[in-house]
Amino acid sequence: xxxxxxxxxxxxxxxxxxxxxxxxxxxxxxxxxxxxxxxxxxxxxxxxxxxxxxxxxxxxxxxxxxxxxxxxxxxxxxxxxxxxxxxxxxxxxxxxxxxxxxxxxxxxxxxxxxxxxxxxxxxxxxxxxxxxxxxxxxxxxxxxxxxxxxxxxxxxxxxxxxxxxxxxxxxxxxxxxxxxxxxxxxxxxxxxxxxxxxxxxxxxxxxxxxxxxxxxxxxxxxxxxxxxxxxxxxxxxxxxxxxxxxxxxxxxxxxxxxxxxxxxxxxxxxxxxxxxxxxxxxxxxxxxxxxxxxxxxxxxxxxxxxxxxxxxxxxxxxxxxxxxxxxxxxxxxxxxxxxxxxxxxxxxxxxxxxxxxxxxxxxxxxxxxxxxxxxxxxxxxxxxxxxxxxxxxxxxxxxxxxxxxxxxxxxxxxxxxxxxxxxxxxxxxxxxxxxxxxxxxxxxxxxxxxxxxxxxxxxxxxxxxxxx
Length: 468
Fold this sequence. Notes:
The chain has helices at about 5-30, 35-40, 45-70, 75-95, 100-115, 115-125, 130-160, 165, 170-180, 195-220, 225-245, 260-290, 295-300, 305-325, 325-340, 350-355, 355-380, 385-405, 410-415, 420-445, 465. By secondary structure, it is mainly alpha-helical. Helix 3 (about 45-70) runs parallel beside helix 6 (about 115-125). The longest helix is centred in the N-terminal third of the chain and has 32 residues, at about 130-160. The chain is built from 21 helices and no strands. It folds into 2 domains: about 5-195 and about 245-465, Up-down Bundle (Growth Hormone, Chain: A); about 195-245.
């Protein structure tokens, strides 16, 4: 790791491995979906729920976890999350039917919510400036690599063992992280941060109701009471949740969004991560159900993206630290849009080398240029005293983006993930990437001048800093 002191090196290592657990589990499942559906039944609806049950609790509770991290200490919250995640993973692997599998996946997501904001907050609370950008670049390279290598690992387990073993991959990283945490000595006192439990409940139930309506509308019809009632309830609960965020003790302080790079960066995050989630889902599933690739081959399809991320992400983070993130956050998503459009060449006469591989190279280059500068721009704009909740908000935005786009999958592909449905998903993916680049060019500005510190008592940002 580049130029880190011993304590900083340990912090980055812990942050990487703890996040690796949740990122790996969120993506390793993709190539296992056809096998799960064959064994337990349920079709595309079950496949969507296996992904979204995890994302619902992860997305809804990650804000609450950010407050808990600021209130009770990053290390303590991370330790609880790791243990709970391990237990939930075993429950997923042992699930005898779709319902228990989905419930266990929801529990897994709740535990995962404790890990990501705590891990990034360790970096943002102990490093600032160019060193922080480089640390986030290293973190991004490894954790995004985990997201992308996950399908390959999942494919190997599905083809040679069982899909159930896919969910036990994270046991070793959990054990290693727990050992490293015991060596990490950071202040663990309670900080007097208010935890808004009601907002956490509103967000969780509201998102759950909305996702239920989106996923099940294909089965029951949009006008069925079982669909529109949860949809309306979900919208009302989310509106109530946002209303509560104007309070001084908000779970997601809306005042943070008045900091330019934080606000615009999260809008870019919404588009980019929705595109990434849609792209990962349809590639992992279609390559098995369409051309008939094995789970391992479908996982190998994204390997070039992984390699480029590992090689280039830390460098992109360092470049952004010197030159500012705007250029990278604009060019990167636009490159990914081009990479997505290259998948339109996929046809009935399938060839990975000519139809998929070029797309993977362009996607990997664009992703490597985007993720570290994006993360650094957003978190570097907020004072370290609020690093836990800032990290949690950004992670919640990215997870909600993936959650909603996967929930809308049936609508996007027309009910069936055949070749026409795959091409429809490609167009949507490219449009979302392009929007991410345009938003970044419009909104992102360079560095420290944009940083603002919300007043601890009021959560408000001084107007001079907020509008700079």
